[in-house]
Design a protein that fits this description.
The complex is a heterodimer. Chain A is mainly β. Helix content of chain A is 0%, strand content 49%. In chain A, the strands form 2 sheets. In chain A, strands 2, 4, 5, 6, 9, 10 and 11 form a 7-stranded mixed β-sheet that branches. Chain A has a 4-stranded antiparallel β-sheet with strand order 1-3-8-7, with no helix packed on it. Chain B is globular and about 45 Å long. Classes of the chains: A mainly beta, B mainly beta. At the A-B interface, strand 4, strand 5, strand 9 and strand 10 of A face strand 4, strand 5, strand 9 and strand 10 of B.
């Protein structure tokens, strides 16, 4: 069964450093998303991406964050200058709203980001 | 602002028992509601998706119901098994024309099924 792949599974960085989290969505999907989950808290929406542009973003997704689809398969989340409070599990997801699965989202297994 | 609440936060049952997980939301103007399963160290797996016009969805031993007007959904698990142990998340998408992937999650119910 096709799946969303995220790399790395764990990332440790120093405060103020830039990090790039990588995702390979399911190949025929058209919508791509990033979510995060701070330990012990709810999963939170960050951004959705369609047709090579951001279609929606949350208040969390400020100027420190950016997303890119650099080629036909990868989808990345960049945090320019990490803060301690950016430590969280980051989930990538994709969907194909024109398929039988409708709006069902398929999630990757996440990247655990630790900012020291 | 939409708030999604799940009760109980944790539940422990013996194997074979039927159980109900509850989800409530404050704003009934939802587009759809999904139930997810989250295993430790793994991603979220979509279990059932209910459109706002639907009342329930079934998949195997799982049945999810939706009462939009009262802001409630339940996930019924029949004949529970130890492999059902996981955290179950409820999430809604609002009906405001935005991205259908902007899910608003509850905090989840951590289910433990004892052999």
């Amino acid at each position: 069964e096709p799946e969303v792949t995220q790399t790395p599974s764990h990332q440790v960085t120093q405060m103020g450093q830039e990090v790039i989290l990588r995702c390979v969505p399911i190949s025929n999907h058209l919508y791509f998303y990033w979510y995060r989950q701070i330990l012990g808290q709810k999963v939170e929406f960050l951004v959705s991406f369609y047709n090579n542009e951001i279609s929606e973003k949350s208040e969390i997704f400020d100027d420190q964050f950016s997303v890119e689809r650099p080629d036909g398969s990868n989808f990345t989340l960049k945090i320019r200058s990490t803060k301690l409070e950016d430590s969280a599990m980051y989930f990538c997801a994709s969907s194909d709203p024109y398929s039988l699965t409708l709006e069902k989202l398929f999630f990757g297994s996440g990247t655990q980001l630790s900012v020291l | 602002k939409q708030e999604v609440t799940q009760i109980p936060a944790a539940l422990s049952v013996p194997e074979g028992e039927n159980l109900v997980l509850n989800c409530s939301f404050t704003d009934s103007a939802i587009y759809n509601l999904q139930w997810f399963r989250q295993d430790p160290g793994k991603g979220l797996t979509s279990l059932l998706l209910i459109q706002s016009s639907q009342r329930e969805q079934t998949s195997g031993r799982l049945n999810a119901s939706l009462d939009k007007s009262s802001g409630r959904s339940t996930l019924y698990i029949a004949a529970s098994q130890p492999g059902d142990s996981a955290t179950y998340l409820c999430a809604v998408v609002m009906n405001y024309g935005g991205s259908q992937g902007n899910l608003i999650f509850g905090k989840g119910t951590k289910l433990s099924v004892k052999p």
